[in-house]
## 1
Amino acid sequence: MQALVFHGPGDKKWESKSDPNIDNPTDAIVKIDTTTICGTDLHILKGDVPTVTDGRTLGHEAVGTVVGTGAAVMSVGEGDKVLVSCISACGRCGYCKRGMYSQCLNGGGWILGHLVDGVQAEYARVPFADNSLYKVPEGISDEQVLYLAHILPTGFEIGVLNGTVKPGDTVAVVGAGPVGLAAIMTAQLYGPGRIVAIDMDGSRLERARQLGADATINNSSEDPAEKLKEMTDGLGAEVVMEAVGIPATFELCTELVCPGGRVANIGVHGEPATLHLETLWIKSITITTGLVDTSSTPTLLRLVSEGHLDPTGFTTHRFELNEIMEAYDVFADAAHTNAIKVVLSS
Ligand SMILES: [Zn+2]
Ligand SMILES: [Zn+2]
């Protein structure tokens, strides 16, 4: 088969590789029908994720068709159309039993395209198939559910649920990339009063409006703290989500939150940020962090199949799977191509 293989920082190839086999009775083999590229893949290619080693097939978001299962797999079988989640779960450990699949103690968590070969390939082995694959409801297209593999549950669980968005809340989302946009889309499920998207890129802010933001602040030309205060009687937002992952944006979030409010950090940080306790101690705020568990995936699948969520608006570019090298170039150059998500279909 062909696969997108990592060969160290800055080096990837679409190359031939042997087909995956069932290594454990809990494995399934999935033919990849539709996949996408993630910001995490770009981090890996920059060398930011040293646990990814030479020879690893990248990718952790896909929709495919089951072509084989190990003897212990009960819930999916040959021919089933499935969503491959970015998080694998043993289903048996203490964390999995609490629905915290990201912290699985038996070799689950984020492993696809990280510690085991991923899904940017013609075929993939999916460990713990019973707890890591979700049957796609009839009549739903691959693209309608593809983003439920990672960005939708991330924005929803780590942004909206951790931030406990409530009816009437002002919700500020700092960073209108794929995950910030996913938070904007799913925050609407809770009837907030106003969603404010904050980013430095005008085209991303425009997309944020299309996906449900009520107001936007371009922090390359406007002071976001000042602007948000104007909108909220000088108080700030009840819920502020950090969806960038740098110290400046985290610190901005703690400036934007109103007394009694919540800061939900979604961004992946590589450097320490300053926590200004000298001003925050008196504000009664809550700060949360998290890695997506994908425990909300069944709920999100139901919302898609019942027509309450349409994530296809994240797609900006479409390619054939074998054009993946070009797709990487387009996705990595988002400042010029305005790419949010690229869809690769086999
Ligand atoms: Zn991803
Ligand atoms: Zn587990």
Note: Residues 38, 40, 60-61, 86, 150 surround zinc ion (ligand 1) (CB under 6 Å).
## 2
Amino acid sequence: MTRLLVALVVGLAALTRMGSAQNAPSSTQWYRGNLHAHTINSDGDSSPYDVMAWYKRHGYQFLAITDHNTFTDPAPLDTNPNDAFLLLGGEEVTNSRTVHLNAIGISRVIPAQNGSTATELLQASIDAIRDQGGIPLINHPNFGWAFTATEMLPLKRAALLEIASGHPLVNHQGDGNVPSTERMWDQLLSAGLRVFAVAVDDMHNLREEFTNERPNPGRGWVVARAASLTRDRILAALNSGDFYASTGVMLKDIQVTADSLTLHIDPGTSPGSPPHFRVFFVGQDGRALTVSNDNPARYKFVGGEGYVRARVEDSNGRRAWTQPVFMKATSP
Ligand SMILES: [Zn+2]
Ligand SMILES: [Zn+2]
């Protein structure tokens, strides 16, 4: 009889910790950050300092300012070493064909890249970002209906894909013919690409009234698990998928063991009418595995899922997405 060995390939840092779960909680923390923000250095309405200050005041621990083809150096802005806030070097590499990628953690400007197809522009940008030790984030594929999974499937060294945004014009839900960006993510994962999903603000506006028509801050973010708040550790967490994406649902913990994925949802503190949560566990090709109303919500691996990820939805429409646990079936 063939025995199926399940090898968990992603979330390596998480798995290592799970191996020594008793000392894990004290050694890592969760840090909330936004990876997409504009200032007056491109088409935003506020200074880099004011944008950074907004995030500091609103419960974030890290931020990348990502102006169009303009590098924002954290050194002159993030000058307080004791404020538990980290500004990462950033830029939105803004190419022709509406092919935009955020460069997270870079140290000098990256010009718009050359290429005759979306795939060429994506790959050239990824390579330029990786060459600086930065983390490439593929932004809003459906903005301008610029590209789909077809154009992303040949990519090498991709890391992050934007699947949710505070920007009102980026069409993340698709139209039924063009897939949603969450569906594109499943297409990439199912083809074996190691890509992790992020939610972002793509914020431009702080000054006027916040409305659904304006790209204001505070709508989409990531929460990364790291031993401390340093550039290298946050970038490593992003690169290895040791984080989750959120538009409002917060998690207390994500546990991956050899046989299960468990989410501990933070129920929040709203008095009187607390939200309810549903957790959708998703496998290869976006297949629905199970739905759970439990907290913690646990999925036990059965083998053959390809990968297992979770999307949490609350009763007010807010969401969180955990990164895939890749499963490889091998015969002894
Ligand atoms: Zn953009
Ligand atoms: Zn942008």
Note: The first strand starts at residue 5 and ends at 8.
